[in-house]
Design a protein that fits this description.
By secondary structure, the chain is mainly alpha-helical. It is built from 8 helices and no strands.
């Protein structure tokens, strides 16, 4: 049985990863909101929704209620801070190469890892834990795109959900092999981030559905 100190250490690591993921995902949501010329309230709403949707869904599915995003004020503070930073200094952020996708890739990796670890801690089967980690990672991006009235990235051709699943799989494998938690989490997050960035650079994608509209003769 793990000691009390080890349990508290693991919980602290999960919280730190979660909060970093919230901040990074909030940057992605706020940057997208600024590009759409939303007002300050809209920027903050989009930053919070992008940063917390995946974690809220994760917590509800494993029965951790109320979700951490509502039970711990630090989640709101991290999301609002990222939104304010982006609203004020968005020109500096835009100097980065495609900032929304870079922040989104970083948040995807962090949330996929944190979601998987929390699912494992809740006693889920490793396969289900990896899937829940993937869902945690993609939830925020899906909500951001829906609020901006566009097709979510995860449903298009870019490698997105698969990158999150790869990072989650590293965490599950590390847990099975009893690897140290922190290095395993870092490795999973980096793998997810790297796959997502490489997919954007080299245009890796899954096959898209090919739909041909029937002609009037065929109808």
């Amino acid at each position: 049985m793990p000691s009390y100190v080890a349990v508290m250490h693991n919980a602290r690591v999960l919280l730190i990863i979660d909060l970093i993921g919230v901040f990074v995902f909030a940057l992605a949501g706020a940057t997208a909101a600024v590009r759409q010329r939303l007002d300050l309230f809209g920027v903050l709403v989009l930053s919070f929704a992008t940063a917390t949707t995946g974690g809220i869904l994760r917590d509800l599915l494993i029965g951790a209620v109320p979700p951490a995003a509502f039970a711990d004020y630090r989640y709101l503070v991290a999301a609002v801070l990222a939104g304010l930073v982006t609203y004020v200094w968005h020109r500096a952020i835009e100097r980065l190469r495609n900032p929304v996708r870079v922040f989104d890739a970083a948040g995807l990796g962090l949330f996929a890892v944190a979601g998987t670890q929390k699912a494992l801690a809740a006693g889920l089967h490793p396969v289900m834990a990896a899937l829940l980690g993937m869902l945690t990672g993609i939830g925020g991006g899906v909500m951001r795109d829906l609020l901006l009235a566009r097709v979510p990235v995860v449903f298009q051709s870019d490698i997105y959900a698969l990158a999150a699943l790869a990072g989650a799989t590293v965490v599950v494998l590390g847990n099975w092999l009893h690897w140290p938690q922190v290095p395993t989490a870092i490795a999973g997050a980096l793998l997810c981030f790297g796959l997502r960035i490489l997919a954007m650079w080299f245009h890796w994608h899954l096959p898209s559905a090919r739909y041909e509209k029937p002609s009037e003769k065929d109808s």
